[in-house]
Specification:
The protein has 250 residues and is α/β, with parallel strands linked by helices. It has two domains: 9-146 and 202-242, Rossmann fold, CATH 3.40.50.150; 148-197, N-terminal domain of TfIIb (Single Sheet), CATH 2.20.25. Helices cover 25% and strands 30% of the residues. The strands form two sheets. It has a seven-stranded mixed sheet with strand order 3-2-1-4-5-11-10. Strands 6-7-8-9 form a four-stranded antiparallel sheet, with no helix packed on it. It is globular and about 55 Å long.
Length: 250
Amino acid sequence: MTSSDLWDEDAAARYDTTSAEMFAPHVLDPAVDFLARLAGAGPALEFAIGTGRVAVPLAARGVRVSGIELSQPMVDQLRRKVSAEEVPVVVGDMATATVSGEFSLVYVAWNSIGNLRTQDEQVRCFQNAARHLVPGGRFVIELWVPGIRRFPPGQSAVPFAVTDRHVGFDTYDMVTQQGTSHHYRRLDDGTTRYGASNFRYIWPAECDLMARLAGLVLEQRVADWAQTPFTSDSESHISVWRKPMDSVGS
């Protein structure tokens, strides 16, 4: 049984609206460009495909995209956009669920690997990606760098969004690497809605070790989809690992 939170019907129905900023062309287009380039002529597999924020425009570029998604309500929202023939999806968790065939690209966008809240599951996610890749294929994750450097003594939370419509902050357990994102949203009627999601944060170096355990080799790390150089001050990273050409099974 997965440790991930499960998006229910209400959360799935509101997802595209509450995440509207992530659908903006200046955010989404560089991601699709980056992934389409890596996929080339081969098929792609998205872990935690959700409502298809990335998969739908990537498929529109001519990439054959399949997905794995834990939440059936999220898949139901995806089906309002594309059919099962256009973007097939297996309902299951990204650490263990499998899809028929082999892929030139497997990817996890927008911090979703953190939804797996144990290290063992995250390791299995990397192994699952490797199993689905052809030799020479790539596994890509988009992930934030934990913001714990912002904590002054005695502070218990780090803000990540402060607008007139949305206030969000993360709380962290430094021992277990568990965290919770807290969201307060002002609705059109003036009321406020609270929501929370849980995660396990991962450092870039920890990701590299998980990749090595899965037989993958780091090929590239940049700070964002626009390929800004990754530095010690970067707050996010796009990491690309490659399955060696001489790999046999996983």
